[in-house]
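[Q] Does anyone have a clean structure-token version of this?
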Amino acid sequence: MKNMLKKVFKHWELFLIIFLILEFVIFGAANPKFLRPKSIMNSIVNYISVCIISLFVTLVMITGGIDIQAPSIIGLTSIIIGVLWSDAGMNIWVAVAIAFIAAALCGALSGFFIAYCGVQPMVVTLGGSFLYSGLALLVSGFSATPAYKGISGFPGKNEAGEFVSFRFLGKGTLFGVPMQIVIYIGLILLCIWILHKTKYGEKLYLIGVNQQAAEYSGINTRATIMSTYVLSAVSAALAGMLLTANVNSAKYNLGSGYTLAIITAIVLGGTLNTGGKGSILGTVLASLIICILRYGLPLCFDVDTQNLDLPVGIVLVLVVLGREIAGQGILQKWFKKKKV
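[A] Here you go.
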């Protein structure tokens, strides 16, 4: 028993896998409808923005930083695409490209102040969340459509009623799998390769452990840190584009309220807020755990969707507390004392 617990808590991803399996067992036993593949995939699609952004904010937090401005960039990206396409008459893909460039510039601006000016990441990204939300509202003012309605009617359906072009990214399927999930899987593989198979990933870990030592070893720590915020902003732009294509509506406040969900997924995944430790697999598993929890509780136990933050918060606190206790060897000492 003691050896098993040691193994589970030593390999955090193993614990998350066990937790995820337990969710399927409990929810599946409570309501067989829970196990329908199509319903599960739809629940992931509804949560995909958080899943995508969490991957790249993980890179930020491994360096010892934090990024809470990504949700505001979702709204900024969405409304830029909508205004340029609907009111400026631009091709939808040109509008998407401009929105991505704008998002990258937002990330670069925040990353510059953090990496080169030494301002605290929390302060910069908190200010950035207000700044970019304000810019999104400003851009929405250039549209003939009232801001509260949102810009709709994006191109994407052929005569047969199939989703194509821009809408295909949000509503289309590939071999029966929603296109958003296919994109997410591709991003998971990309991030695993970046973080665990490249020198860039090694630099991120070294910076998180000791930035000064990394600087002495020849790493351009400032440029590397700044790049993580650019990547995070671009991932938010991608999430904003997919969300817009999915709901067929561009709004300045699209994605608002995602901040805590993103940070929760990363912390639950095992990434330290002090930097130097974290994994993409952990973030993916934690994102799925939260997603399945939010899907299963209303379906199987009639929990009101407005109250879902409470059980998710409780799970986060208990799991992280258990991890910290295990990390300090308290459980091992207790089992040794009891001779289990």
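[Q] Thanks! Anything notable?
[A] The chain has a mean pLDDT of 89.
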